[in-house]
Amino acid sequence: MSPSIRPDRDAVALAAAGLLGGLLLWLLGLHTRGGHPFSAPWATLVPLSAMASAELMRRTAPRTALTVGALALVADQFTRGSLATALMFTDVMYAAVLYGPPPAARRLPVATLLITVASTIGFLAWFRRPEALLIGLVVGLVTFVPALTGVSVRSHRTAADAARLAAAQTARLAEMDRTQAVAAERARMARELHDMVAGHLSAVAIHSTAALSIDDPETSRSALKVIRENSVEGLAEMRRLIGLLRERGEDDAPATAPTLAALDALVEQTNANGASGGLVCVLEDGRGPQADPLPTPVELAAYRIVQESLTNALKHAAPGPVTVRLDRTEALLTVEVTSVFGSRTGPTAPGSGAGLVGMRERVALLGGTIGAGPEPDGDGTRTWRVRAELPVAERTTE
């Protein structure tokens, strides 16, 4: 027999219990009525056996089981009757609504209600006695009540399945949000790490190359001094980054993000690192002494843009001035860094292009604009210009 039509254990148990119960009632001579056309005792066993076979199909073939059960119940009315046959039919009706196709599950309660009402009215008209209402009540208990119970259980199961599906979808969405949050945090950490350490390591690379290529004790001593300063400052920046990432204890002081007030020190450091390459860095702050404080994300982004631009100038700019300009309006903070564009003599540090990507990401997060590239000057030289416009007001989402 195919597994798809094999009766389950519950069906076998119910069929066996109903059949054995009916046989016991038959042996004891307990019947529901007498004086019918087929009043022989053995006739009661025929619809009983048919109903038991319908029980076996209650879940695998509910519509067939209901058809067989209905015919067995009708046949039982022409015998002396068995209570077990009627009880098994209630389970067959319940299973037909619970396990049958949705259209049948919707139609059966309505049909059984109409049968109950029609039988009640018919028996009242036939017998013209109030006791006929009891017949209608029995019909309702055998047909309508099991169908109604099946509808209720099926509705609860459907709701439970929908709740489980919604919970699974919520879990998948939460996992997607977690993955996106992890990716965003990794990108932020990568930007911070690059911006904080790249300048120091570039200076170390340039001056170590100069110390190795120039056979002059004084030049080597000066280069080693710059290397040591940048190594110490780079280590301090790394410690600060670690302090931002690790979980802070109650006694730990919060690590502060760099602000534009620290640009003087950054320009001074760039002058020290770029002196051997002929770079002279100047800061022009046009914001005015009474400028309102900027949001922390804007200050951090502006500082990092200047830091990365100076790092790139230290790596690639030709000898000449490096100018950092700041300007402020009510709506925008403008950051501009210019340097001489051209081939550079002496040692250089390799670049990966990650700095420009990081600057664009920072500006995009704030809803600003940024441009970077060479521009011609009137005296025949070319200038590398980085210009970013950052909204001063913090972005809000509705």
Describe the structure.
This protein is an alpha+beta fold. It folds into 2 domains: 9-170, no CATH class; 256-398, Heat Shock Protein 90 (2-Layer Sandwich). Helix content is 62%, strand content 11%. It has 10 helices and 5 strands, in the order H-H-H-H-H-H-H-H-E-H-E-E-H-E-E. The protein has helices at residues 9-28, 45-56, 62-76, 83-99, 102-127, 132-213, 217-245, 263-274, 296-316, 354-366, and strands spanning 279-285, 320-328, 332-341, 369-376, 382-391. The chain has a 5-stranded mixed sheet. Helix 8 (263-274) packs parallel to helix 9.
Write the layout of secondary structure elements.
Blueprint: H1 9-28, H2 45-56, H3 62-76, H4 83-99, H5 102-127, H6 132-213, H7 217-245, H8 263-274, E1 279-285, H9 296-316, E2 320-328, E3 332-341, H10 354-366, E4 369-376, E5 382-391
Parallel strand pairs: 1-2
Antiparallel strand pairs: 2-3, 3-5, 4-5
Helix pairs in contact: 1-2, 1-4, 2-3, 2-4, 3-4, 4-5, 4-6, 5-6, 6-7, 6-9, 6-10, 8-9, 9-10
Features of this protein?
398 residues, alpha+beta, Heat Shock Protein 90, 2 domains, five-stranded mixed β-sheet, 5 strands, 11% strand, rod-shaped
The total domain count is 2
Number of helices, where a helix is a run of at least 4 consecutive DSSP H or I residues: 10
Q: Taking strands numbered 1, 2, ... along the chain, how are they ordered across the largest sheet?
A: 1-2-3-5-4
The biggest beta sheet, please?
5 strands, mixed
Q: Stretches where pLDDT falls below 50 for ≥5 residues?
A: none
